[in-house]
Amino acid sequence: MSMNIYDNMRRRGFIAQASDEEAVRRMLGESQVTFYVGFDSTATSLHAGSLVPIMAMMHLQRAGHRPIAIVGGGTSMVGDPSGKTEMREMLDESVIRSNGSAIHDQLDRYLQFDGENALALNNADWLLSLKYVEFLRDIGRHFSVNRMLAAEAYKQRLERGLSFIEFNYQLLQAFDYLTLYRNYDCSLQMGGDDQWGNILAGVDLIRRVEGGKAEAMTFPLLTTASGAKMGKTAAGAIWLNAERLSPYDYYQYWISCDDRDVGRFLRLFTFLPLDEIIKLESLEGSEIREAKRILAYEATVITHGEPEASEAKTASAQAFGSRPSSGAGDLNGMPSTDITRDRLEAGFNAAELAAEVGLTVSRGEAKRLIKQGGFYLNGEKINSLERRIDVSDLTPEGILLRAGKKKYHRIRIEG
Q1: pTM listed for this prediction
Q2: Are the CB atoms for 404 and 319 separated by under 8 Å?
Q3: Which among 1, 136, 157, 313 has the fewest CB atoms less than 10 Å away?
């Protein structure tokens, strides 16, 4: 007998809270459920912190349930105060619309929106046309200010100041759930655990307005074993867009994870069977590297596809030998920049070149790495801030730069 999808998700670590655990478990095991998750339209790409809800949606979709992804074109006009100590930047409607289109396309790679088995909707379609006084009368009257202020998301902001526009966010998110319940028979909303109060508000609104039964489920807010927020590094966000972060660097993020995170990440960010994951997470010492390679490959396949994951895997294996030596074709997955021969003959200061190609965010960062002994050229440490890089440094594979332990970039001659 196959495991109930709810039990499988709990064993994998997806579930923080549920409005009625037995009711959610039962509904997911008895018939097709339409469920939804909302995504802000505040950037042109999601990052690895969004992967928990995305993977949860994919698990439920594979179990026969119907996902709705809400691109928050309407709620992003207001800004969610949850988990924020300051008010979010107010974005122009055209920027939000453009971001929403990019995020829609990104989510489509994971969920394959076909208008029937998987839906993508923009809450701007029903929120931006609301008549404010009617909305307050019909929806606002069901909300208790005392109860809202007791919610953790609002309590955290009261000391620093909570704007009136943010105070409306919970009403709008609850109205989203009511709209989806009415129009799409949606009966389960999921989101991060910081959304618990907002999601329960929607459950309660459906009960009050429609006399209906809807449920809620939240995911844990992840940090790495080192305490860093999931999807963030010292160098910036781990974007899911290949134009903002190459598949190679994405692969490197996973293969470089803390040993203590391997088992948890395999459960959350791959579709490997649990019994296989249990074997992999039991590896110790140098063998844990194999588990990390599997994690990195599987995670990269899901986000970027098998060809890109295979290229990244090969390039990583080549880069982390003593020195690449079997041809540039083996390094195709590595981030690369083409430079004209004339420019390379003139030469570059090492820090200048690192910043230009994006290996470091600035010359200052590159200089700090050189001083700390963490900057390498073709496998050899650069010890001088005055070191120049030119055509004499070319190898058959190009010029290979490394910043720190894991970040590589290849320079090739243009043409």
Answers
A1: 0.79
A2: no
A3: 1
Residue 303 contacts residue 238 (beta carbons within 8 Å)? no
| Cβ neighbours around 310 below 10 Å, total | 16
d(CA 101, CA 78): 18
| Cα angle for residues 157, 159, 160 (degrees, 5° grid) | 70
Question: Do the Cβ atoms of 194 and 153 come closer than 8 Å?
Answer: yes
The structural domains of the chain, ordered by start, are 5-219 (3.40.50.620), 232-320 (1.10.240.10), 336-413 (3.10.290.10)
- Cα–Cα distances (Å) from 93 to 68, 100, 321, in that order, read 23, 10, 49
Q: pLDDT digit string (tens) for 184-216?
A: 999 999 999 989 999 999 999 999 999 999 999
Nearest of 90, 106, 99 to residue 72 by alpha carbon: 99
The percent of the chain in helix, strand and coil, each rounded to the nearest 5, is 50, 15, 35
CB-neighbour burial class of residue 39 (10 A; exposed 0-12, middle 13-18, buried 19+)? buried
Q: How confident is the model at residue 327 (pLDDT cuts 50, 70, 90)?
A: very low
Find the distance separating the first CA and the last CA of the chain, reported in whole Å: 59
Residue 73's nearest CA partner among 176, 208, 226 is 176
